[in-house]
Write a structure and sequence with these properties.
5 helices, 2 strands, 11% strand, single chain, mainly alpha
């Protein structure tokens, strides 16, 4: 579980789209898969890259990639470079 403190407008938008889910009897906001990829691209660590690869290895890969591409212009430039790397690493998946 990650705690996200939305500092930038694109992060606040992600948090506003989060849907409440029950976790151990407590409702917590959970972001959508596309938004999770965006947050992980921004974080950019090795675990984040692995998490992105796992998300992209699902049957919903095409929809996920499309959603990330549509939202990518909102992120800082270095996130776009990491996205290209993450997609290349999972191209054969």
């Amino acid at each position: 579980m990650d705690l996200v403190l939305g500092r930038w407008s694109w992060q606040a938008e992600i948090l506003s789209r989060a849907e409440p889910q029950s976790l151990l009897g407590v409702l917590v906001p959970v972001v959508r898969a596309t938004d999770l990829v965006l947050l992980k691209l921004y974080a950019g660590g090795p675990q984040d890259r692995w998490d992105i690869a796992q998300l992209l290895s699902t049957q919903a890969r095409a929809d996920l990639v499309s959603g990330v591409q549509a939202a990518l212009p909102q992120l800082p430039g270095d996130c776009r470079l990491l996205r290209e790397r993450a997609l290349a690493e999972t191209a054969s998946a």
